[in-house]
Amino acid sequence: METLVILGSAGLAKEFFLYIKRSQPQIKNFIFVNDLNDGQNEIVISGISYPVVKDWKFDSNYFFTVAVGSPKIKNILVQKALDSGLIPAPTFVDIDAKILDNTIKLGVGGIISPGCILTTNISIGNYTTLNLNTTVGHDTIIGDFVTTNPGVHISGHCIIGNMNEFGTGSIVRDRLIIGNNKMFGAQSAVVKSTLNDESEVFVGVPIKLLNKK
């Protein structure tokens, strides 16, 4: 893989670029994608400018990863990337992340950021982002299009559905089941299962339902 397409061109894309560049030196070319009509045609990282592409016309052999926090936007961008013939890259693992066991299964199109620790018998889905210093305990399953912000701690024997987002510093108690489409605010304490698939926002210690998304 010499060329990588990064979906997104904001701050998270800059961070992902740095993680991937140092962990995957064989990747020489980076292309950023942002199809919004916002006038952004370049992204500057460490003083170097990289092009931001506004269309979906790519060499079909290019691999891609997604560098957006919002699960909903990730889903939209990924569908456009797949429709354009791009190929999902394996989930990238930063050199300062710790995968402690070869039983851990990683999907495609995501990233495991610096400081993350995954222990044993864990499954991570497709296009899932584990941001800085996230920890995941034993026997936990995390679905597709999930985002953890920095400092999230997920305990053992949890089942986390698709399209969930965990705010900075939030924690998840062991043996919980979380459905799809949830957002947990910063420093939330998730101490009970949320089994439905409605779009909901939870905040607080312990969590309380704030509103429907």
Order of helices and strands: EHEEEEHEEEEEEEEEEEEEEEEEEEE
CATH topology of the largest domain: UDP N-Acetylglucosamine Acyltransferase, domain 1
Average pLDDT, rounded to a whole number, is 94
Strand order of the largest sheet: 7-10-13-16-19-22-24-25
Give a quick account of the main beta sheet: strands, pairing sense, barrel closure: 8 strands, mixed
Number of strands: 25
- CATH classification class of the largest domain: Mainly Beta
Structural class: mainly beta
N-to-C span:
38 Å
Helix content class = 10-25%
- What amount of the residues lies in strands? 25-35%
Low-confidence stretches are: none
What is the CATH homologous superfamily assignment of the largest domain? Hexapeptide repeat proteins
Treating each run of at least 4 consecutive H or I residues as one helix, how many helices? 2
Rg measurement, Å: 17 Å
Give the domain tally.
2
Q: Identify the CATH architecture of the largest domain.
A: 3 Solenoid
Judging from the principal axes of the Cα atoms, what is the shape?
Answer: globular
Description:
- By secondary structure, this protein is mostly beta strands.
- The protein folds into 2 domains: 3-88, Rossmann fold, CATH 3.40.50; 92-204, UDP N-Acetylglucosamine Acyltransferase, domain 1, CATH 2.160.10.
- 12% of the residues lie in helices and 33% in strands.
- The strands form 4 sheets. An 8-stranded mixed β-sheet has the order 7-10-13-16-19-22-24-25, covered by helices on one side. Strands 3-4-2-1-5-6 form a 6-stranded mixed β-sheet.
- Strand 5 (63-66), helix 2 (71-83) and strand 6 (87-88) form a beta-alpha-beta unit.
- The longest helix is centred in the N-terminal third of the chain and has 13 residues, at 11-23.
- The termini are far apart.
